[in-house]
Amino acid sequence: MATVDFETRQLLKAYRKGLITDELFEAQMRELQTGTGKYTVNGKSHASEKEMIVALLDEYRCAENFASEYLGSWNEVSNEECVKGGLRVIQRREAYHAKLLEDRLRELGGIPQCNVSSEQRSKEMGVYASKDKTDAQKLQYVADQITDLPKALSFITDVIDQIQDDQQTKELLRSLVQDEESSAKWLMEACQLMNGAKAAA
Amino acid sequence: METVDFEVKQLLKAYHKGLISDELFEAQVTELAKGGQNGHPQYTYNGQPVGSEREMIMQVLDEFRCRENFAAEYLNRWIDVSDQECARGGLRVVQQREAYHARILEDRLRELGGIPQCSVSAERREQDLAFYASTEKTDAEKLLTVASRITDPAQTLKYITSVIDQIQEDQQSKELLRSLVQDEMSSIMWLKEACALLNPAK
Question: Which architecture characterizes domain B66-198 according to CATH?
Fold first, then answer.
């Protein structure tokens, strides 16, 4: 595989001989500088597309698995019937996401490695499983974390944008993002309903 | 409490005996259908009157569950023979959605005291499974057929949304169904996009 140095030299050779236009040279150089062939998840570089995908599948699987767990705990102590109805759907979504992501991870030769830290686990479970906090308070807690949804989902969408070869995973992730948007929409609406104007601000 | 059936029978009796005019009979039937009798809400499912909100909810839970269960089954067959990697990725998500919908709907149905009764006819099963499991038909062809069946998503989902609109008491089922409809819209959107991608000229 060609190194970046070699590719730069080849480009310069073509440019100096007038074989490529200024624009094409500039675009190619920019692509090289920003790291063509380099893939990133959450700012961490990976040598190949597959390695990047495996890293994301594991991290996303882990987050969904944990979300399914704490949403289940929340549902058990929820005191609002309308909240319970939506929570049940979101909890099942997260559970099937975790399963699907793990299946794909294993198909690509990976194994689940990512774990939620005990600190984060105890913090989140302390909120969601609490009987002292109301559904309205919990919804506000979630809503505060997803005020900028595209940013919250960028660790997935950035990877989708970088995938060129593995079209199955790309489409799978794209469809899961659609689910995440549905869940976020419901959470924001429920928050607004339960907290009134305060949440809408 | 009088059931809708009983009220309809009483009206028909009065009408047959010539005790009420054509106009009054029509107005009364319309009122029943709209659910305005005595200020008590009346419920309909698939155009048919049902005795209570709970009965209406159990009917939609059972029918929706049945459809989703079957969809999860035939989508699996399609995935097995899919000829496009990008279609396979989306189909896997849609299939899993249908499977969890079927489970959650059955759970709610049982919580309300119902039992699964609806089933897909043998004829329909045979026809649909043959179509989706076919290795002779391409993903593009299958997507085109599916997309042609859902030109009006709101109409396709009306048997659910009209129930949601009528629910006043059971807020848990209402919100559950509302969230599942959101999933259905996502699945329809994906199917249409994939269809357009794989059938660019059509």
Answer: Up-down Bundle (1.20)
